[in-house]
Amino acid sequence: MVDLTTTYLGLNLKNPLVASASPLSKHVDAVKKLEDAGVSAVVMYSLFEEEIIHESEELDYHLDHGTESFPEALTYFPDLDYPNLAPQQYLELVSKLKKSVGIPVIGSLNGSTLGGWEHYAKLIEEAGADALELNLYFIPTDPRLQAQELENGYVALVKTIRSLIHIPLAVKLGPNFSSLPNFATRLADAGANSLVLFNRFYQPDLDIETMEVVPNLELSTSSELRLPLRWIAILYNRVKADFALTSGVHTPEDVIKAVMAGANVAMSASALLHNGADYARILLRGVADWMDKFEYESVNQMRGSLSQKNVADPAAFERANYMKILNSFNPKAL
Ligand SMILES: Cc1cc2nc3c(=O)[nH]c(=O)nc-3n(C[C@H](O)[C@H](O)[C@H](O)COP(=O)(O)O)c2cc1C
Fold first, then answer.
1. Do strands 6-8 and 194-197 pair parallel, antiparallel, or not at all (unpaired)?
2. From CA 79, how far away is CA 233, in angstroms rounded?
3. Ligand 1 midpoint to CA 43 (Å)
4. What's the pLDDT tens digit per position in 257-298?
């Protein structure tokens, strides 16, 4: 019997497969199914900064203008087209999930600026979450906004949230930072116990007939694994934090690669959404069988074995490899 146990955010987990934030966590039954199928923890879908601010503005208006003007208030505020539950319902769902399942439940907040909504971190903790994942999601469009300024804002947000809660804090971020090792270190110094790499940005498409920008959500494929894989391999043992790999975890081999790069856990959303919660069982069976076949005793033994510091050719993760890869390509057209 191979030992699949791992630790993540100070939690002892029975295996390295965690359900990433997705609509699956909106339903207690779906989370129960994930637990039955073997996932070791679940990250809830996010409560968004905009939802919290929207709700508190609505409440202020309500308090200022009396109950009878509430219908007016509803039209006064722009429609927020978020299909998520209201903040209060989110907190209720956290405590309901905690009562319904035995696996750790990680709450999730999605925001980018300090703006009075951060106290929800405390409320999520009070509702019983075992840890909190903070999803930093901001697309800069102002050419005057400097990278340093943006990163300083993120670090301040992490510090503030760290100071508000006692449960472990994970920070989920996108890949677009000029010097990721430096920024990752700053986040860890600010109190992030784990880095969740990477957030998957949904790229809108363009409808060239209606001349509109069209929202477009496609599920991932295994090929998307390589970006977080490379960066976790580089950051492992360089940054003092746990790592969760998200984006492109679809097969047992993907989970093993994540661990070998240095991840404490591999997170899955697309594969579970596409194949159903039971697919977790197949992934975990596959991981155990693979480990058995190649005579690995434990996940801990595998962790980081293919990180940059541990591979025979560390340059394979760097620029040197870029030149080699380009030169090795054999164009059929020539
Ligand atoms: C339908 C859908 C909803 C998602 N909702 C959230 C969310 O609320 N918060 C969040 O941090 N990530 C969210 N994600 C991102 C996933 O947690 C995950 O990081 C991303 O999809 C990459 O992993 P995957 O390749 O396994 O899908 C969502 C993804 C999908 C497909």
1. unpaired
2. 43
3. 10
4. 999 999 999 999 999 999 999 999 999 999 999 999 999 999
Of all helices (H) and strands (E), which one includes residue 159?
helix 147-164
Q: Reply yes or no: is the peptide bond before residue 198 cis, omega within 30 of 0.
A: yes
The residues facing 106 across adjacent strands are 43, 131
Q: Which residues contact 37 (CB under 8 A, 6 or more apart)?
A: 277, 278, 279, 280, 281
Structure token pair of residue 179 = 């010097």
**pTM of the entire structure?**
0.90
What number is the average pLDDT over the span 224-246?
A: 98
CA angle (20 as vertex; 47, 257 as ends), nearest 5: 150
Q: Which residue lies with its CA nearest to atom 10 of ligand 1?
A: 21
The reported pLDDT for the residue numbered 113 is 81
Residue with tokens 């155990």: 288
Which string of DSSP letters, residue by residue, matches 75-126?
A: HHSPPP---SPPHHHHHHHHHHHHHH-SS-EEEEEEESS-SS-TTHHHHHHH
Residue pair 106/121 in contact (Cβ under 8 Å)? The answer is: no
Q: Is the beta carbon of 25 within 6 A of some atom in ligand 1?
A: no
Compute the 3-state secondary structure of the chain and give helix, strand, coil in percent, each to the nearest 5.
Answer: 45, 15, 40
Confidence of residue 67 (pLDDT cuts 50, 70, 90): very low
Query: Which residue's alpha carbon is at the smallest distance from atom 4 of ligand 1?
Result: 22
Q: How many CA atoms lie within 13 A of 257 on its CB side?
A: 20
Expressed in angstroms and rounded, the spacing between residue 219 Cα and the centre of ligand 1 is 9
Nearest CA-CA partner of 245 in 253, 231, 237, 234:
231
Average pLDDT over residues 16-26: 96
Cα distance between residue 255 and residue 245, in whole Å: 9
